[in-house]
């Protein structure tokens, strides 16, 4: 199946708006300074409720969100964002706490940076995630495969006629697998193809696949379409006659 597409020029990130949600004043000011120097417009919030208010008043292009916040924590803030918005979210997590990363990814975060972190690394992550979310491609024709209908340009996936409510990464992962039926991919390959990372925590793929199965499979514990290939990774199985 041919799915060739032509990329448009890399989007200009100048004056794109980033909301930084961090209760530590020193960290907040450093992040704000570095992002501002990189050409972003930066808004800040010191807790989860203030962050949700800020998003309601003026939707940012991306949110940098601390995992540990007063009031409601970052994972819950991310879940509430995902109910109404498809804004990219980068989570700041505590070093040595993998449960924080997993919880954040399950809540719908697109990426994470562990503390302590290099402000320059964070800026690069913000630029990479934002470029990916803003890059537009030449229109791709919708197609049907197995029980799924994929409209890549509209970023819609339907299963048996019902639209799936997917986060950015969930859509990207499912769309990639639908375009390559019956081919097994390692988690490393999916991390590069879907996230654009040459290296990273492979649990990112595992967690996103688990969330995706909960939305796309009849029985997530016994997936029939998004299959595990033991010792390799995952593949999409469209079913007989497809």
TrEMBL record:
<dbReference type="InterPro" id="IPR001867">
    <property type="entry name" value="OmpR/PhoB-type_DNA-bd"/>
</dbReference>
<dbReference type="Pfam" id="PF00072">
    <property type="entry name" value="Response_reg"/>
</dbReference>
<feature type="DNA-binding region" description="OmpR/PhoB-type">
    <location>
        <begin position="140"/>
        <end position="238"/>
    </location>
</feature>
<dbReference type="InterPro" id="IPR036388">
    <property type="entry name" value="WH-like_DNA-bd_sf"/>
</dbReference>
<dbReference type="InterPro" id="IPR001789">
    <property type="entry name" value="Sig_transdc_resp-reg_receiver"/>
</dbReference>
<keyword id="KW-0805">Transcription regulation</keyword>
<dbReference type="InterPro" id="IPR039420">
    <property type="entry name" value="WalR-like"/>
</dbReference>
<keyword id="KW-0238">DNA-binding</keyword>
<dbReference type="InterPro" id="IPR016032">
    <property type="entry name" value="Sig_transdc_resp-reg_C-effctor"/>
</dbReference>
<dbReference type="Pfam" id="PF00486">
    <property type="entry name" value="Trans_reg_C"/>
</dbReference>
<feature type="modified residue" description="4-aspartylphosphate">
    <location>
        <position position="66"/>
    </location>
</feature>
<feature type="domain" description="OmpR/PhoB-type">
    <location>
        <begin position="140"/>
        <end position="238"/>
    </location>
</feature>
<dbReference type="InterPro" id="IPR011006">
    <property type="entry name" value="CheY-like_superfamily"/>
</dbReference>
<keyword id="KW-0804">Transcription</keyword>
<protein>
    <submittedName>
        <fullName>Response regulator transcription factor</fullName>
    </submittedName>
</protein>
<keyword id="KW-0597">Phosphoprotein</keyword>
<feature type="domain" description="Response regulatory">
    <location>
        <begin position="17"/>
        <end position="130"/>
    </location>
</feature>
